[in-house]
Amino acid sequence: MSRAWVAGLLLAAAPAVAEGQIFLASRPSPEFTIGPLFVRANVTPDLDVVTVDVLWSLVIPPTKSGAGVEQDLYLLWPGPVGGALTGASPDATLVAYVKDRGFVPIGEGRLPLFAQSLYRAGDDAPPQPIAGGAPFVTFIHEGGPLGLTAPATYVRIPWTPMLANRTWLMDLRIDLPNLLRRRQAMWIEDAFWGPSYSLSLTFNDVRPRALFPLYFEQRDRIVRLADDPSQLIVNLRDAEHLKIHEVFPSSARRRLSETLDSTEEVSLFLDRSEGLSPQVLTVRFGYFRGWRAWTPVLIPIVFFALGNLAWPLFMSLARRVGARLAGRVQLGPGGAARQTGVVLSRETLARLAPGSTTYEEVVRLCGANAEEHEQLAAPDRRTLIYRGRRVAPQGGRSLGWLATVSRWSAEQHEVEITLERDVVVDVQARVRRSYLVQPEPS
User: Fold this and answer.
1) What pairing do the DSSP bridges indicate for beta strands 73-77 and 152-157?
2) Which residues, including other chains, have CB under 8 Å from residue 284's CB and lie 6 or more apart?
3) Cα separation, 155 vs 107, whole angstroms
4) CA–CA distance, 38 with 130 (Å, rounded to integer)
5) Which range (206-220, 260-274, 319-333, 346-360) has the least confidence?
6) Of 7, 57, 304, 312, which has the highest C-beta tally within 10 A?
7) What kind and span of H or E run contains 77?
8) What string of DSSP letters covers 219-255?
9) Contact assessment for residue 354 and residue 416, using Cβ atoms and an 8 Å cutoff
């Protein structure tokens, strides 16, 4: 397995997290601390390479001088780094150091290192580059019971008098092309809102397998955080086209940057009382442009329009389906018929005897809901007409209160009862029968 192939594989599989930074001194039990410390990620809408700046200063006890604590610092970075100075020679001592411990170097070079004045910040006083930068070596471990490890980086920060000057901040600049992780989402979410990304910054994370042995060997050289406020910071440029979906933890602060135009700043204060417990800042966000900028307005309008157009179509379809279902399925006792008007049975008609049945008996047997016809030429003669309709299911199978229907029988009933001097003289009954696929709606 070649070293270049291993490096490419691990860089492609590297997690999208700028994990914990651990500062080490050259000598055990350092008397100074780090403070303030700022780990700042700068994100642009291009979303290609994220630049991370590690800015810090040293807090030296009043009883010590800068010359008394002069020594190189080291930084453990759990992952590969980019943005190395071109044409700069690597540090052979660092490479030999990791080789002696069984690691395999896969990248080496020097990172840009600057000193930024606190009182002369801005375009008139750009950061001063430190000659030679900060040498680094990126390495892996190929053996062991758990196999190949993820990359880790060991950085040496050469001593400079500005480290002991509280009016200066040191700035180690790193390019991380794999820091952003695209979030998985449904296609409709990507279509309307655009892709979303996740970015995480952590501090004090020494769990990576390639990093832990170096930490464990040099744990007596860890430089602790001072009481000065230290932060993890994510600067998201082009705030007008930015949507932040989620920030973790809830104690993180979100605001517009005071120094950068159109930049949203998300920050988390580091708690020094947590010791070596990892502290994490995660931001999930996305950029939108073009028609996606109108999405919050367009989506309600589209749903409103579709609702007004779709409701009549839906109701028409529901009526048709409901009628079709009602024509094929019967709920209730089997053979239940639907009846309107007055339908007189044969037994009732048989009790109407011409010459003897009176008007009062007709009303009692057949009901009062009848049409009454009279003739001016025959005032003693009148006709009562009873009309009704019965629709009954036929065929199919039944199972309890559920039955299927093959067709419907529609019967039109009409009975004419002629009376003279309030006595029945004639009874005429007519029935017209037809068949329906489904009953008419009521």
Assistant:
1) antiparallel
2) 183, 196, 197, 198, 244, 245, 246, 247
3) 12
4) 19
5) 319-333
6) 57
7) strand 73-77
8) GGGBPPB-SS--EEEEEEE-GGGEEEEEEESTT-EEE
9) no
**181-210 confidence digits (pLDDT tens):** 888 767 666 666 678 899 999 888 887 888
Pair 78, 21: CB distance under 8 Å: no
Could you identify the residue written with the tokens 């000659």? 131
Tokens of 352: 């109407």
Specify burial of residue 411 (Cβ count, 10 A radius: 0-12, 13-18, 19+).
middle
Q: What is the DSSP string of 105-154?
A: EEEEEEE-EEEEESSS-STTSPPEEPTT-EEEEEEE---STT-PPPPEEE
Name the range with the highest mean pLDDT among 8-22, 313-327, 364-378. Answer: 364-378
The strand pairing partners of 246, in sequence order, are: 284
pLDDT digits (tens, 9 = 90+) for 44-74: 988 888 999 999 999 999 888 888 899 999 9
β pairing state of 128-129 and 33-43: unpaired
Q: Kindly indicate the confidence band of residue 11, based on its pLDDT and cuts at 50, 70 and 90.
A: very low
SS3 assignment, position 159:
coil
Q: Where are the alpha helices (DSSP H) in 329-429?
A: 346-350, 359-366
In the prediction, which pLDDT does 56 show?
94
Return the closest-CA partner of residue 111 out of 61, 157, 46: 157
